[in-house]
Amino acid sequence: MAPFLAYEDEGGAGSSALPLVLIHGHPFDHTMWAPQTAAFAPERRVIAPDLRGYGASPVVPGVTPLSTFAEDIAALLDELEVAEFVLAGLSMGGQIVMECYRQFPERIRGLVLADTFPAAETPEGKKARNDMADRLLREGMRGYADEVLHKMVAPYADAEVTAHVHRMMTSTPPEGAAAALRGRAERPDYRELLTRVTVPALVVVGADDEYTPVSDAQAMHAALPDSTLHVIGSAAHMPNLERAEEFNGVLAGFLARLGD
Fold it and tell me: CA-CA distance, 240 to 236, in Å (whole number)?
């Protein structure tokens, strides 16, 4: 049976290293992980899916809760015969990583939580996400993309990185983005879950991230029993693109610590 999700599956031929699974944020697609795929595929299998409603994956209107995203990822990895792996996610992708750990912790050998936070949505946040979902359905993605571009990446970011991020946002189907926003509005609180994580974790954040500030990363680091925190300077919400070399170096060190 063909997988439901579109995905990139690179490297891994003959490698005994744990596969690295990369979960993108909103409103992006798997190409946000291009620097990481290029860096790590020579030595291990790297799998980067397009979440449902994003990229080349099917668009399912309505409401997409984080639990559904996690179920999709589990089904894809079943189809690809990937039993155990390191799981990394940024922003919404980080929250999906937490949901994956809630659903199938026995498969995950390490967690990477980048520019994300574990708390449930506030009443004001729920309204804002649902209002934004209505707006995207009404107006499309471009106005939103123009408004938030320099919060996603810092104003001083490389022009090619900025263009890539804007292109991903404007290419996202509004129906998929709206469904994810409505689902995230109802997400559970993962803070207690983090205290029960039994595998090593890496927490990464851009120093200038306004969406998920350094204080959020510090709180996750404090909650996780075995974690490393790294703050990447001169980066906002997407340090994996804005400062790819530093991000990759930190991730390489974490993977080496896992012993593979």
Answer: 10
pLDDT tens, position by position, 143-185:
999 999 999 999 999 999 999 999 999 999 999 999 999 999 9
**Is the previous residue joined to 27 through a cis bond, with omega within 30 degrees of 0?**
yes
Specify the residue for token string 């851009």: 206
- Contact indicator for 183, 65 with CB cutoff of 8 Å: yes
State pTM to two decimals: 0.98
The radius of gyration of the chain from alpha carbons, rounded to an integer in Å, stands at 17
Segments in the chain forming alpha helices (H): 34-40, 66-79, 92-103, 123-139, 142-152, 159-171, 174-185, 191-194, 214-223, 239-242, 244-257
Contact by Cβ (8 Å): 83, 47: no
Task: List CB contacts of 159: < 8 A, sequence separation 6 or more.
Answer: none
- What residues have CB less than 8 Å from 164, skipping those under 6 apart? 31, 32, 241
Taking residues 4-8, report their average pLDDT: 96
Torsion of CA 33, 7, 40, 67, to 10 degrees: 70
Write out pLDDT tens, residues 95-111.
999 999 999 999 999 99
Residue 1 in this model has a pLDDT that exceeds 60: no
**104, 75 Cβ separation under 8 angstroms:** no
CA distance 245 to 243: 6
- State the pLDDT confidence band at 2, using cuts at 50, 70 and 90: low
